[in-house]
Amino acid sequence: MTDRVGDEENTPLLSDSDVVSNARPPTSFAERVNSVAQEPLTPLTKILLILALVLLLTCSVFIGLFAGAQHKLNVERGDGRNGHTHPPKTVTVTATATTTATTSATTTATSTAVSTVTTSLPTTVTLPAPIPVPTIPPEDIPCLEPHCVILSASIISSLDVSQDPCENFYDFANGGWLKEHPLPADKSSFGNFEVLSQQNKRVIQEILESKSSAEHTPSHDSEILTKLRDSYSACSNEERLDSIGSAPLLRFIKTLRRLYRKEDTEISLLPGIDSGLTAAIAFLHSRGIESLFSFEIEGDVGTDPNFMVPWFSQPKFGLPSKEYYEDKAIRKVYKDVVERLLLTITEEEGKDVSQSSPVLVVDDDDDTVWPPWPWPPWGGDDDDDGHKGDDKGGNRSQEIKVLAKKVVVFERKLAQASLDLDVLYQDPITTYNPVPISNLTDSLPQLDFATYFSTFTPRTFPDRVILTDPTYAASLSKILDDTASEVIEAYLTIRAALTLSPYLGMATEAWQVQRSLVETLTGIKKGAVGDRAEYCIGKVEETLGFAAGRYFVNETFRGDSREKGTKVISDIVEAFKTSLPHIDWMDKKSATAAAEKADAIRVKVGYPLSPNTRNARSIAGYYSNVKVDKLTFFENMLSAATGDKFKQWLQLGRQRNRESWEMFPSTVNAYFNPPSNEIVFPAGIMQPPFFSHNWPGYLSYGAFGHVAAHELTHAFDSAGRLYNQKGKLEEWWTNSTSMGFNVKQRCIVDQYSEYTIDDGHGGKIHVNGNLTSGENIGDTGLIQAYRAWKAQYHTSIKEGGEYLLPGLNFTSSLVRDQLFFISFARIWARAMKPAAAVQRIRTDPHSPTRYRVDGTVSNIPEFAKAFKCSKTAKLNPPTEKQCIFWS
Prior knowledge:
One of its GO terms (molecular function) is metalloendopeptidase activity. 48% of the residues lie in helices and 9% in strands.
């Protein structure tokens, strides 16, 4: 309702209809005054008269004080313009009424009604100044709708206003959140990404635990939901998992051992493969277990990025990176884990075979015990303490201790032969080495690659392979030659056990052993286990992610979320293109080419079209070969891993499916794929605190806008810039532009290399500026999100899209700018164990979140302006010390 200024009240608020006066009222004002004056004053009348006089006197004093202050202010300001004062001749009184309405999208719009009364007065009369109106414009009245209050409260609670934003912006924006979210005992790292991931999992959990049937195309949706619910049920049935024990793992290892030892040439799991190392490796790789080396099917970026070819590379290791193998304490822990796993497998299989358990064997007639005793079949090796093993195999645990040490030594050699991760992740030129397939087979003769490839039944046999490291195959060959067969067998066993034991019951020794390694490497409290439902939903997503994504999207990604998210991305692309002519290190030719690449980027938002999330038949067909049983969690995971691996190999020799995704719809993440020149944003990340379709623009562009700008900027970072608009690997910038970029990149590398973390033992570890340079450059894209927001601001504010939130008026003229940066910083709130932080420093191409915030804003002058930072502030360094890429 709009208040009307000046309307008179024509009817009484209360009316007594039972009392009617017949007395004639005085006919004139004088008569009425005389009548009242002649009436005697009652005590009540006297009291009211005194109160009225006091009130009148008080009002007069306040009006006088206010008028004097206003007059003095006008004199000092010179009417606010030119420093001169003039006697008031005409006074214009403006009354403003504001109406707040809510649109269908729950966006608050503000309309203003203004009435003006002009009165001419004698020049000798000075009236008091009009009652002051709000100092902020009428359209800046904060939104008081419930969703605005809730959103404002979440932001306020995340802040620590005792911190100076110009010195510690990460702490300022996230200190409150960190206090309210202590790190859970079962987690090594926990932040807003994990909070949203948990929320997304709960959405899927409610769907899987509900008994409702599918409404659309019941046959296909029923099939999908049955698989999803059976997969979840199998994982959730902890009692059954504990009762089964280690049997599934032992059965798997027995098959692996028989393949490696050529004990059975008719095992139907691998048609055509009948011998040794090749058979064992093919068996492991077909189940998604990396060992010795890895193969990925990806585009040939040197010739045709959409033609899918095999890439040969180093594998994952038992420890996260090669640095861990040089840490004596960690190496000792790992050796103990390997030893315990080998001993557990030995004891469990011997015990179960002696009890004639049929689940342990591939062939029911086989009753051999693995490992055979004495095992290892050699004796006399020194153990860690210099003791000799029993040549006759009498001391089994001592022999296993020696074998475990040899396995760790073997893995350490593999790690030392592998590429450093900063090269593997950041240097696409060095890691692109196409060779004829004969080069690989000649370098690694221990493997029969023709037989290996036949395992995955590709449509065409590859005649060309791309090596990420041209020396690794030869190094691996030499290491294999220098290693006893029994050690290689034990290594393969450990790779299987570490990968598969998490799928056993938590009461099993194998599960507990691998868990102890996780606890050591990440700092998780010993014995602390998280919510089983959360874990199981994660496994459902891992194995049937596009199927789960169908129902997740239906529940969470409605309305105009896709359109509004796409608009944010498109605005950022335009802002980036607009900035190109103004970049000091980029010449005109390169700027034109960069704009063409930006225009060519494919933007995918929400969910994939292959398989089509909105089409139940498409999803059902995609997972038709994945077998799921509600009683066999271990086998379900193997089936899904096998299905994924064979789907990858089916792409060999084909053109890239341009509609496929590398992430599931519920994933809280986003990515840029250089060979296909696309940026992808799953529905999972398009939820608060990253995005909401009814947020004000400054929040959307600050949070989700940064995610979008980050991925766009990857197309022009240290690695992405080496791919042209068609995804082909080539140097498409001019030499002078490349040289200018290298100077900027060196600035970023040096800046982040100065940052450190605590190692948990009183020491400091520096961020690897080379490893993280691509991601740090991606974070510089925040300035493009800021420019995109500013470019659409005037249109947005007219449409009610930049409404303020209550209680967040830090600096009235800059509040939106400040909240833009706060919304960016909030998404990176994260608590982390020191051990996990060390692991990330060594393996993660992303910098610690603290530096992703403070390091980024220190290179953006607009941040310092928004918070009015002094020239000496930590996050407002001199221009010559800033690493400014995009201006």
